Amino acid sequence: MSDTHVPRRAKDLPSRVWREVDTADLVVHAGDWVSESLLDRVRARSRTLLAVYGNNDGPALRARLPEVAEAELAGLRLAVVHETGPAKGREQRCERRFPGADVLVFGHSHIPWDSVTAGGLRLLNPGSPTDRRRQPHHTYLTASVADGELSGVELHRLPAG
């Protein structure tokens, strides 16, 4: 997930997202938490949390989270960052910036994104579960990892309200 903006855009995460947090082996958050209390609650309920800060996260969150996070999961090299710049040229920029990654999860735009670069880097943006902006739905992503491969990537649309 990304761009939760709690409590500015929503009082809390949707209950469906909390259920996913409770059951996932890894929770990824690509920044714009806004409140430390949400970070604390997600961290407490996650088996493992891989997270970064975003442009709306203040000094306290920036002191606790990196700008870029990386992990290896069952042979898959995962990177997380909040901002990747404009959509035009994104694939090339991200390939240059993250040459060792197989998958890059990013946020900032609140626009779901799923593409693969010419060099094979998978780019994923989960959108936002709490602040859809001009998108038709609030969203988040789930996926599976096994034997160095990402599979079952699914964009979940949340009901309005």
TrEMBL record:
Domain Calcineurin-like phosphoesterase: 1-147
EC number: 3.1.4.-
Keywords, comma-separated and alphabetical: Metal-binding
A GO MF term: metal ion binding
Cofactor: a divalent metal cation
A Pfam family that the UniProt record links to this protein: Metallophos_2
Metal-binding keyword on record: yes
PANTHER family for this protein: VACUOLAR SORTING PROTEIN VPS29
Family, as annotated: Belongs to the metallophosphoesterase superfamily. YfcE family.
Protein name (record): Phosphoesterase
Naturally occurring in which organism (per UniProt): Saccharomonospora marina XMU15
Organismal lineage: Bacteria, Bacillati, Actinomycetota, Actinomycetes, Pseudonocardiales
